[in-house]
Amino acid sequence: MSDNSQQQSNQPAFDIIRLYAKDCSLETPNVPAIFTKEWKPEIKVDFDAKPTKVTDESYEVDLRVTVTCKIGEEVAFICEVHQAGIFLIKNIDQETMDYLLAGVAPNMLFPYAREHISSLVNRGTFPQLNLQPINFEAMYRARKDQAAQEAAKNSDVANGASKDEAPQA
Fold first, then answer.
1. Measured distance CA(120)–CA(162) in Å, rounded
2. Which of 23, 31, 87, 145 is most buried (most C-beta within 10 Å)?
3. Cα dist from 89 to 58, 118, 137, whole Å
4. What tens digit of pLDDT does each residue of 81-102 get?
5. Residue ranges per structural domain of the chain
6. Which sign, positive or negative, has the C-alpha torsion 4, 96, 19, 136?
7. Residue 3 in 3-state DSSP?
8. Which contiguous run of DSSP H or E holds residue 99?
9. Which CATH architecture has domain 12-152?
10. What is the pTM for the complete model shown?
11. Whole-angstrom distance, CA of residue 59 vs CA of residue 45
C-alpha cells in the first residue's frame, strides 16, 4: 500500500481549493442625471489575472475585470470585480504551471466575475449587461506564439547583423 500512496503523491495535480470574491464595486458618478440620457452605451472591458504563490503547492489567481460604461462623454458606471481562487498545483513543470495559472484558472474564474458584474449593474438599475465569454487559454497561447515569433525575429536580426559585420575575403 505504501508504494501506491507514494506513487499517488508523485502524480501531477491541479485542483480548486477555494473560489471567492476578493473585491467588488460599482461606481455611478453621474446618477441620477445619467438616467435621463438616451441609452446608447459605449462599453469598455479591461481585465488581467495575477497569480501569487501562497504555499509550495498552492497559488492564488486574482482575476480583475473592470467594465466602464459611458453615454457620450459621461461615465454611467464603472464596475470592477476581483474574482479570486486558490489552486493546488503540484508535480507540474514550470511551462505547464504558467499555462494553468494564466489560462486555465482565469477561465474558471471568469464566469463568477461575469455574474458579479451582471448583478451589480442590475442593482444599479441599469439595463442588463451580459459580458461575452473570454477564452484565456487561447489568449495565453497567442501571447506565447507572438513571443516566440518576436524572439525568432530578434534572433534573425542579431544573426544577420553579425553576418554583415563579418570580414570579407
1. 58
2. 87
3. 6, 31, 17
4. 999 999 999 999 999 999 999 9
5. 12-152
6. negative
7. helix
8. helix 94-99
9. Roll (3.10)
10. 0.82
11. 25
